[in-house]
Amino acid sequence: MTLKNDDIRSVVRERYGKAAEGVTDGCCDDNGSSCCGAKDPTEAEIISLSLGYSDEEVAAVPEGANLGLGCGNPQAIAALKPGETVLDLGSGGGFDCFLAARAVGETGTVIGVDMTPQMVSKARKNADIGNFSNVEFRLGEIEYLPASDNSVDVIISNCVINLSPDKPQVFRESFRILKPGGRLAISDIVATADLPDHIKGNMLLYSECISGAETIEALETMMREAGFENVRISPKDESREFIREWAPGKAIEDYLVSASIEAEKPDTPR
What we know:
Helix 7 (167-177) packs across helix 10. This protein has a seven-stranded mixed beta sheet, with helices on both faces. It contains eleven helices and seven strands. The chain is an alpha/beta fold. The chain has one domain (5-264): Rossmann fold, CATH 3.40.50. Residues 25-34 have low confidence and may be disordered. The protein starts with a helix and ends in a 6-residue tail after the last strand.
C-alpha cells in the first residue's frame, strides 16, 4: 500500500500532539515506547541518558521539555559555538533547543520549528519557565521552513526527518536556509536493509519512526542532490537494543539503526 503524504502528516501531527499533552496510552501500538514519548519525567531522563546525554544536560532544561522522544544526541556532533544561529527541525518540547541555547550563549539564537501546535505551545511555555531569551519556537513544516535564505549556521534534529513523507524537500530547505559554510548535524533512524512491504505500508509504524526510514545510500543521494558536501552517516549498531522495544515482536531491529548524520553547505556556490 502506498501511503499518501497528507495522510502521513495528519497521523504524525495527531500522535505527537498527544505526546505533547502527555497522552501515551494507545501510542506506539500500545507499547508506550520512546518514539512516542516517556510516561513521566523520570522515564524521559532514563531514555535520554541511554541516548548519550549527560546528567548535566538532562538536568539543565525545564521540567516538561524532555519528552524522551529522541534516538540520539545531535548536540554531541553539532560542536556549537557562541554567537551561532541554530535551527532545530521538529523541536518538540524544546529539549535540544534549550541545550543549544546554553552552547551559543546570549549572543546566539536558537529557532525551533515544529508542525504540531501543541508542541510549539508547550515549548514556548518551557522557554518562559526557564527564562530562555535567546530561543524562539515557530509553527511550520520542515519541508517548508519558516526561515529566510542563508540565515542559519547549524541545523540540528533528533529523530524527525524519518517522519517526513518528502525527505528530499527537507534537505533542499535545509540547504536553502543554511549560510555558506553552514552545517547539518542530526540524529535519526536509517534503514540498513529494505523494509518489508508490511512494515513500509503501515501508517502506525510510520508515525513510530519506523516505516519512513530510508537507507544510508538513499539519504546520501538526497543530501548530495540538495547541494551538501562532506556527507557523513555513522550508524550505531548498539541502538538496535532500544529500537527493538519500539515494536516488540516485529523484528524491526533487523532493518533499522540510529545514526549520526552530518553534512556541510559549500562556502561558495557551485
